[in-house]
Design brief:
The protein has helices at about 5, 10-20, 35-40, 70-75, 115-125, 145-150, 175-190; strands spanning about 30, 45-50, 50-60, 65, 85, 95, 100-105, 130, 155, 170. It is of the alpha/beta class. The protein has 2 domains: about 5-50 and about 110-190, TPP-binding domain (Rossmann fold); about 55-105, no CATH class. Helix 2 packs parallel to helix 7 and helix 5 runs parallel beside helix 6.
């Protein structure tokens, strides 16, 4: 019943899909775990979910992967979901381990390689766009100074100020649902 399960992508998400289709997007490093970039249609290979995702789950015992939507669809039949993966070394008995969404909880490590991939992409980018982030959460916020040190132009689009505004070559303090689609369309038009 939580709104997170029924959330739909917004105009900003779809603008990034347009940028992706135009061949001008190398990576989306997101702190959001709502899987809205995937739902909008961005290339999964270009999305790094720094704080994990509710879109997938895993067994905490055998590490089998599950689609969270499938688990949610069966909650009436199985209100306490457990792993049904058959273990050959146990005579094909079900694992019965606990299932957990792939969201990174406080104190847990980020997905392996997520920060390294994000920083490397930011340092090699033509531009870095920070969209809708206060840049208060680390280690994700460290992507901005890494890109600045590499000489990458930075756009920060956020309603309020951030600690890294001084590193930005462009600041946009407007609603991202309006400002991001405009920036994407202008960028695509300028590069045709």
């Amino acid at each position: 019943e939580s709104p997170v399960w029924n959330a739909k992508p917004g105009k900003a998400h779809y603008a990034l899909v347009d940028l992706d289709k135009a061949g001008m997007l190398s990576l989306i490093a997101t702190q959001n775990f709502d899987a809205l970039h995937e739902k909008a249609g961005n290339s999964p290979s270009k999305i790094v979910n720094l704080h994990g995702t509710i879109g997938t789950s895993h067994c905490m015992k055998c590490h089998a992967k599950y689609d969270t939507a499938d688990i949610m669809a069966r909650l009436d039949e199985e209100p306490d979901p457990h792993c049904h993966h058959q273990l050959p070394y146990r005579g094909n008995m079900p694992c019965n381990g606990l299932l957990k969404t792939d969201v990174v909880y406080f104190g847990e490590a980020l997905p392996e390689g997520a920060m390294e991939r994000s920083i490397r992409a930011a340092q090699q980018a033509d531009e870095l766009w920070v969209v809708g982030s206060t840049l208060e959460v680390f280690p994700a916020a460290s992507i901005v100074p890494a890109a600045a040190q590499a000489g990458v132009p930075i756009t920060i689009m956020n309603m309020g100020r951030t600690q890294y505004d001084s590193l930005a070559t462009r600041l946009i303090h407007e609603d991202i649902a309006v400002a991001l689609p405009e920036l994407v369309q202008r960028t695509i038009a300028d590069n045709r």
